[in-house]
Amino acid sequence: VQLVESGVGLVQPGGSLRLSCATSGFTFSNYYMNWVRQAPGKGLEWVSVITSGSSITRYAVSVKGRFTISRDNAKDTLYLEMNSLKPEDTAVYFCARDGGAPYDYWGQGTQVTVSS
User: In whole angstroms, what is the distance from residue 45 CA to residue 37 CA?
Assistant: First the structure.
């Protein structure tokens, strides 16, 4: 199982960025998928989840209305579209498979920095 995030970026406040998580080694379409982030010096914060067929999405209050999670099951890829970015969105962003405990596989993370 592999999850590989991409979309490292330095963006100004108010800007946008799209993260991708390319997966392999499992049947992507069978699993809920999540984005989780860790800001400097802080613990892990759950950001968003999407069901296997994309019918349901949920967001943390801190990002609701600004971030959009999506997936392409034909490409085995998860996305996070981030708009109206704020300095407090600066973090390492991880994609994580929802296989229990609560997540069984994680990507290596990708750095997002929001700064002027």
Answer: 5
